[in-house]
Amino acid sequence: MTYKIVVLPGDGIGPEITQAALDVLEAASSGVFDYELQYEAVGGDGIDQVGDPCPAATIKACSGADAILLGAIGGPKWEEAEKTPEDGLLELRENLGLYANLRPTKVNNSLLDLSPLKKEIAEGTDFMMVRELIGGLYFGRPKYYDDKEAFDTMYYSRENIERIVKTAFDLAASRRKKLTSVDKANVLANSRLWRKIVEEISEDYPEVEVDHLYVDAASMKIITHPTQFDVIVTENLFGDILSDEASVITGSLGMLPSASLSENGPSLYEPIHGSAPDIAGQDKANPMSMIFSVTMMLRMSFEQDALADKIEAACSQVMESGLVTGDLGGRAATSEFVQAVIEAL
Ligand SMILES: NC(=O)C1=CN([C@@H]2O[C@H](COP(=O)(O)OP(=O)(O)OC[C@H]3O[C@@H](n4cnc5c(N)ncnc54)[C@H](O)[C@@H]3O)[C@@H](O)[C@H]2O)C=CC1
Ligand SMILES: CC(C)CC(=O)C(=O)O
Ligand SMILES: [Mg+2]
């Protein structure tokens, strides 16, 4: 069977790390996993190519794919566009119904030196952040600003909270059976409903231990006690911020992949970071976030665990040898790192 993967390279370092990860996939998968790639435009690339950061043709191609890979979008060139690359990304997520964004923070214990945290704090860190992706402040209407005032709307329906919370409980039940719900229920009405629903749904998962943290305290505990977490579930904005914070426990934002799931359609895999305009086009980007996005795809969409293991083992071997990109304190170019991974396969 030949699987169809739709590739959305996007902007900035997006195309560079996408190509890097696809080179690794091609080298590793020969004779094992058969796929075809279809390239489509999104973000600033969509604006430049067809005047739309979320072209109809892209949505159509994604809807018919077995899986989707996205690099990153955005950059100064399109900041003043009527419809920005970020608007396009949100539209893509909403159109494809990608309600659950899974962001794993897993420290490789043989690469503890890469973490800015003390070894004894970072060692054993392995948690999954489940971020609600198509609700909350990023989508709520009305939304408005002029020179005198501005407002956004934070809105969640019961159904949308139930859906993400159940996904997180299912995941916790399949892991170490601990779920931490992060909210701001001491202040926000949204969070009060969120917390109530978490408590209700917990009745159906007696084997899962549940606790609640306010988002401010959670941001502190993720850094001081990262190993206390197994699955974290939270709303869109909090998850966006906390996952960038969590990523650096592994050494760099450039290490973290994600999987976005819908109820019935294909899943989308993308790094958690943005288009990094400050290093774009310089062969400096860390491609690990995209390589891990590919291995998440192999596991979750195609049950190709052995192939994913093989790619990750080659990456670990290269990083353990000290060959790492600048964000991890090294000097390797993206191309040099990828070549070494391909040789280590
Ligand atoms: N999903 C997406 O496509 C996202 C897009 N963005 C967009 O990206 C653009 C840049 O935003 P920033 O706030 O600068 O966030 P960013 O995540 O692009 O970069 C933050 C910092 O991390 C570094 N970095 C990120 N990924 C890296 C990698 N793979 N290797 C090495 N270093 C890496 C960058 O060089 C920069 O110093 C904006 O237009 C923003 O809206 C931001 C976040 C997510
Ligand atoms: C650019 C935003 C729309 C998204 C973002 O920061 C993210 O998904 O992490
Ligand atoms: Mg973000």
Automatic annotation (TrEMBL):
This protein's assembly is summarised as: Homodimer.
Binding annotation for Mg(2+): 216, 240, 244
The residues that the entry says bind substrate are 93, 103, 131, 216
Residues given in the record as NAD(+) binding sites:
274-286
Q: Which domain of life is it from?
A: Bacteria
| HAMAP family according to UniProt | LeuB_type1 (MF_01033)
Q: What class of enzyme is it?
A: oxidoreductase
Which InterPro entries does its entry note? Answer: IsoCit/isopropylmalate_DH_CS (IPR019818), IsoPropMal-DH-like_dom (IPR024084), Isopropylmalate_DH (IPR004429)
Catalytic activity from the UniProt record? (2R,3S)-3-isopropylmalate + NAD(+) = 4-methyl-2-oxopentanoate + CO2 + NADH
One MF annotation (Gene Ontology) recorded for this entry = 3-isopropylmalate dehydrogenase activity
| Originating species | Atopococcus tabaci
Question: What role is this protein assigned?
Answer: Catalyzes the oxidation of 3-carboxy-2-hydroxy-4-methylpentanoate (3-isopropylmalate) to 3-carboxy-4-methyl-2-oxopentanoate. The product decarboxylates to 4-methyl-2 oxopentanoate.
Q: Keywords for this entry?
A: Amino-acid biosynthesis, Branched-chain amino acid biosynthesis, Cytoplasm, Leucine biosynthesis, Magnesium, Manganese, Metal-binding, NAD, Oxidoreductase
Subcellular localization: Cytoplasm
In this chain the Isopropylmalate dehydrogenase-like domain maps to 4-341
Name-wise, this protein is 3-isopropylmalate dehydrogenase
Q: Does the keyword Manganese apply?
A: yes
Choose one Gene Ontology CC annotation of this protein and give it.
cytosol
Pathway listed: Amino-acid biosynthesis; L-leucine biosynthesis; L-leucine from 3-methyl-2-oxobutanoate: step 3/4
| Co-factor requirement | Mn(2+); Mg(2+)
